[in-house]
Amino acid sequence: MAPASRRGFSTKSDSTVSFVVSIDRGESTHSGHHHQDCRRRSSRPHGIRPSWTYAQNLLNRREDEAALRDAIALAKPGQDLGPAGRAYSAFRALVDHGSAFRPGRLVVVAADLQSPIPPEHAAELIAALREIVIGGRPAPVVAAAAATAVMDLRADVESLALLCADAALAKTLGWPTPLPLLAGELFARRAAGEGRRPRPGEAGWGRLVALSYGRAALAALDLAQDLSRRAVRLADAAPKLRAKGKTGAITALLGDDAVSAAAPIAGLSDRARRRLFDRLVALGAARELTGRAAFRLYGL
User: Fold this and answer.
1) I need a labelling partner for 121 at 20 to 30 A (CA). Which of 52, 70, 147, 262 fits?
2) pTM, whole model, 2 decimals?
3) How does DSSP assign 46-60, residue by residue?
4) Cα separation of 169 and 165, whole Å?
5) Using one digit for the tens of pLDDT, what is the confidence trace for 66-78?
6) What number of H helices and E strands is found in the chain?
């Protein structure tokens, strides 16, 4: 989309915003891998900032992106991830396979966000969200209403409300999984010093949501295009690799923000795995994300 279109985007109506977000569906989901990675990375306009930052901001945590990435990517099974890590885990749970609007899943997500809700309230909320989604209204309007419904249940769960808004938007547009669009854009506006914003249900909330989704959709398009270029470079490098387990390594890089060099990959020993990742870095097909000599993490 041309820069001139972006400058004029804020004047569009809610229905036009919905249309642009629908375009994002087509542009950013042409590959399952790209959509999966985009949903984890899309959190802030004008640059690749993964859902690590989204999770950090969601609970107003102070961990920087590198610290949070380490906490997640290097965690052992069953290890406590800390508050910000659990917020990231909450979004990963929300976008897992199957419908996001299931009471059991919502209970897990709410607990990870430090906003626990009892199962009976979760079932009540899911019923309300399903009614909102099938109303036939533009997607940003549905998302705004979903966030308000969550806040009507409990006033101190705005983080959960924003996640549910993203889930409602995805459901309305027929996306296979939600993208973390709304909260990332709202927190970017806060960081830019734009002052207090309307909360779900307050005057101006619907307009703010529509404009935020429009801006976030444009950023998601940029992100999807960048990820597509990176994925192409990785695919082009594949024939130059001799390791038998290269397919598993490539799949891992396409499927997540950061892959630990210590993470098992079928067909690759520890040494072969590290050599393969280093070879991909030398070919310009992957990046080492930490700058460390040990506990290295790799990504697109």
Assistant:
1) 52
2) 0.74
3) SS---HHHHHHHHTT
4) 6
5) 777 887 888 887 7
6) 14, 3
